[in-house]
Amino acid sequence: MFIVVGEPFSVPLIDLIVKIGIINCVVWNLYGPAEATIDCTVHSINVTNTIQGIPIGTPFSNYRCMIMNEYSQQSITNQEGELFAGGVGVFAGYLGRDDLTAKALLEIDGELFYRTGDLVRMNNNGLLHYQGRKDHQIKLHGQRIELGEIERCLLNITSISACVVMKWNDDHLVAYIQSFHANEEELREHCQSHLPPHMIPSIFIILDKLPLNQNGKVDRKQLPSPDFSLPTSLSPDQSDTPLNQFEERIHTIWCQVLHCNQNHILKNTSFFSVGGHSLLFIELYHHYQSVFNFDTHSLSIAPFLQQPTIFQHSQLLQTVIINYVKATQWHTLHINEGIASFAQERIFLDEQVRFSSDIAIYNELFTLQVVQGSLSFNRLLQALRYVLNKQKILRTSLVFNNDNGILKQCITDIHKTFTITMNRTFQNENELRDIIYQTTINPNLFDLSVGRVFHAEILKHQIPLNENENNNNEFITNADVLLIAFHHAAFDRASSSIFFKDLSLACNTNAISEEDDDESLQYIDYSIHERLIDMTTSREFWYLQLEEYNFVYRLLLPVDRHRLSTDHRSTSASISQISFDNEISQAFLDYASIHHVTPFQLGLTILYAFLFKLTHGDDDLCISCLNANRYRNELQNIMGMFVSTLPYRIQIDPHWSFDDLVKYVQEKCISILEHSHYPLQHILADLHINQSNISFLETMYDFITVSSHSEELSLDGADFKQVSFEQSFEVAKFDFMLTFVYNPMFENNRLSFRLTCSHDLFDEITVTNIGRRLEYCFQQLFSSDEIINRIDTCFTSISKFDLILPEESQEMEDIMFCRQSYIINEAPASFVQLRLWHNECVHFTPHISQVPIYNVPFVYSLDSHHTLSAQHLRHALHLIVTKHESLRTSLTFYTENDRLIQQIIDMNNNNRQLFTFAESTYQTVEQLNEILHDEKCNPHLFDAAQGHVFQCHLIYYKSISSNHLLSHKDLLIFNFHHALFDFPSMNIFLHDLNQAYTTGQLLYDDDTNLRYLDYAVIEQQMSMTGASMFWLDVLHDCKLDQPLSLPYDRYRLSNEHRTGRGTPICFDFGQDLSHDFLIHASS
C-alpha cells in the first residue's frame, strides 16, 4: 500500500510509482490539516489509467466538507471555493489563543467547521480537487493571479517533481523548480502555450532540491533570491520594461491599425488581446511592408502571427533592416484590356455552371437609410461618377471568347453616362424588405458584357395618406434609402471600406471627375502581375495537401433529401442564426488571446470539432475557407475581387484535446496563408479534378469582423445607417455555410453565427437543430453555467463533445404516457412488435422450420399440502384478460399499405375465445417433458392474427381431479406470445392473479387506464432525435453486417431458414466465485 499525505499528489509521482513496478500496489491520496486530526478526505488512485489531475477525493466517514465562495455561500459544482472541514476529528481550538480559534472555526448548522485556507472545487462526480492555498492568490499589475494554477501547469511537465511560484517585490513572478533535467527555455515555452501572458513567471530558478522545514514542507524563506541582473533573468518581453525607439515606431503603427489612443500597449501583449483580429492583422502586416519596404518573399506574415507581440515584431522587422531587404514594387501597365484575374474567372465560371440563370447569386447589396439631414441627388450622382472614374473595376466588362476559351476584361467609359435609379417607393419595412430581396436575386441587375457591374438606387419613403409628403426628387431625405449594389466579380468585402471612403471624400469635398491618374495601380494591372508570380512552391504545397484526399466523398451531414448531379440548385436557403451573450463572447476572445490564435482560427477549430461529431467520427475533413488574398501592400486601396476560396483539409486524431486541435488548425492556417494566392482552379487542375462535382466546395466557412466604421456613413451632412431586418434573407450559394460575425460595437451579442444551408437539401427545422447543436458546443467550451457539462480544453478528447441537447437527453422523461381518448380499439403496432413480427416472418417460417421463437411459458407447481381451484383460477384469468387488453389483442399485417395493426378483441363477442384454458395428464417424466417441449415449441399454440396470444395449461398427475383441484404433483403453465408480453409483465400478471383469485374481483378504471395500444401510439409520436444521435455516434464505425468470428463447425447459407435447434450448456460458478463477482460489481 502506498499512501501520499501532507503535500499535493503530483502527476509525475504516478509515473515514478509505475516505474518502480510494485505489483498490486494500492495507492491512496489522503488530505487533511492537523486541525482535523491529520486526514479528512481520501481517494483511491488507479495508476494504470491515464491521469490528468488527482483528486483529494471524498470525506471519511463522520466527516463533512463544505466549499464556500468569497461571499460565504456554498460553491456550485466546478466552482472554486475555500474548503471547510467538519466532523468528529475537528479540534477544539488553539490552547490559549482564543483569537486564532475564533478565526479558524466556524459554526454551520450547529456543527463546528475548520477553515482550512485551501481552495478546492468539486467535479461532476462529487470528487474534491485541490486548487492551492487561498493566501496564494495575489494581484500583479492589477491582474488577479492564482499561484497554484501556475504551479499545476508546471507540474504537468514530467521532469519536474516539485515547484513553488512566488510574487517578488510586487513586480515579478518567480518560479522555483525542483528538477534535474529541466531548462528555462522549455519551461517558458510550456507556460506560454498554457497560460495567459500576465501569469508567465519572469524568472525560473532550477534547483536540485527545494529546501524543506522541520515539518517536511517547502521552506519558502530559504528559497534563494532571484538575480535580476542576469541576462536571462527576465523574459525578453517583460511587460514593465520601457519601449526602445524602434519598438515605439511599432507601437505607433499598432495604435493606427487598432484605431486606439492607448498611451502604452505593453510590449509582451498579444495583438489579439487588445482588439486585434484577422483582417486587422493583415492590415498591420501591410503597414509593416509599407513602412519598412519589404515583400512577402522576404518576410511572410506567418512568423508575425506566431509571435504576436510588439517585442517579437520588433525582432522580426530588425532582420529586414539589418539585411537591407528591398521590396519589388508593382506599377501600372497603362492598359485598358487584358485577361481576367483568377478570382474573376472563378466567379464567372461558378455563376455559369452551378446555378440557373433565372436567379442571381452574386449581387452584393448595401442598404443605407437616412437618419438625419438630407443629401442632394445631383451631388450624390457627381460623387458616384467620381468613384467610378477612380476605381476602374466598377466600369470593367467581362467577355468570354468561345474560340480561345479566354475570359477577357475591358475598361469602359460607362461612368460618363451613369445615373441613379429612382422609380420605386416603400411605405413600411415589409415593402422595403421585398424590394431588397427582389434586387438581391434579380438576374438582370447587371450585365458583365458591357461593364454594368455597379448599381445605385434611391428608394423614397412614402408616408401613407400623405402622398405629397416626400415627392421631392432633388433631395434624399429622412427615412429614404440608398441602395448600392455591386457584382461580386468586381467587388469583395474589403472593397466596401475603400468605396465608402472614396464616396464620402467625393461627397464631402464636392470632388468632380478628373482625367485618369495614369500612375495609379488598377485592378486590371493586378490581373497581369499575379500571372507573373512564380507559383512552383505553391503548386507543390497544394498537391501535397490534397493528393490522397477522396474528392468524391461527401460529408455525412444530416440532410433531409439529396440533389441529383444533373439538378440545378434553387438558391433557396434554410437559415439558423445564433447570438452569444457577453460572457461566452468574451470567453471566446479570451481563449483566442491566451492561445495566440486569431478568432478566425478559433472559429474554424470549433467547426472542425463540430463536424467531426456531427458526421459521427469523420476524421478526414476538407472544407472551403475564404481568404482576403490582398497579399501585397499595393493592393490595399484598390477595389476589386481578390478573395480566394481554398480547401482547408485536416486529418483529426480523435484522442486530441481541443487545445491540441487549436494548435493543429493554427499551424494549418499559417502554412496556407503563404500560398493563398494560388488559384483554386489550378489546385483542381493539378489534381485532375472537375470543379462541378467537387465535394469540399459545398461546405464553406467565413469569419467576419465588423469594422467600427462600417455601420454609419455621413455624406455632405446626411447621416446614413445600415438597414437591418429581424428576418434575414440570403441566397444559398453553398450546401452548408457557416459565417461567424464579430461586432465589437455591440454592447450585447457581439459574437454570433449564421448557418446558411441549401433548402434543396435541408429543411428549416433541420438547420435550426444543427445551429442549436453548434451553440451547445460553444457552451461546453466557454459557458460558466453550472448546468452545462464543460469540456476541459487541455485534457478532454474532442470525441467527448456532446451534440445531444439537454432537452433531448430528457425527452424520455418529458413524455407523458396517458390514455388516448381518440383511440378506441385499433392502432399501429409498436416498434417492438414490428421487430418481433419481422424476425418471425424472416428467420422462422412455420411451414419450413416448425419452430416458434416467441412462445414464453412459465411453469409452476404447488407447495406441499396446498391446493388450487381450477374454476376459481379460470374466473381470475378471465378478470385479468378483461383488464389487460393486450392479452386479447390481435396483430394483422395489411399488404395493401404495408402496415402491422393491433386490434383489441371485444369482450362482448361471444363467438371469440379470449384465451385457451387446457387440461391434460401425465404419468411419467418422459410424458411430462413431451408436454413441456410442446408448450415451448408448438408453432400452432397461438394465432396472433385472431388475438389468441395467451394460454393456461393445467397438467394433472395421472388423472384430472374430480373436484378440479390441483395438488403438489400437478403443474400449472401460463404461456404467452412474446409480441404481447415480456418478462417484467409477469410480475404484474402474478400480482393481479393473486388479487383476482383471492377476492374474486379486479378493480380498475377502464376509461383512464393506460393501455398498450396507447403506448404504441405515443411511442411513435416521440421525438427521438437525441437517441438517434447517440446510437449513430456509438455505431458509426461498427460493421453491423459482419458476423463475429466465432469457431463455427459449419455455416448457414443466406437462403436457408434456421431450424431453431440449439446446443445448450449450463454450469455453476460456485458460491465463492459468485460472491466475489457480486462484491466486484458492487464496488
TrEMBL record:
GO terms for biological process: amino acid activation for nonribosomal peptide biosynthetic process; secondary metabolite biosynthetic process. GO terms for molecular function: catalytic activity; phosphopantetheine binding. InterPro entries: ACP-like_sf, AMP-bd_C, AMP-bd_C_sf, AMP-dep_synth/lig_dom, ANL_N_sf, CAT-like_dom_sf, Condensation_dom, PP-bd_ACP. It holds the Pfam family PP-binding. Residues 241-321 form the Carrier domain. The keyword Repeat does not apply. The keyword Cytoplasm does not apply. Keywords: Phosphopantetheine, Phosphoprotein. GO terms for cellular component: cytoplasm. This is Carrier domain-containing protein. The lineage of its organism: Eukaryota, Metazoa, Spiralia, Gnathifera, Rotifera.
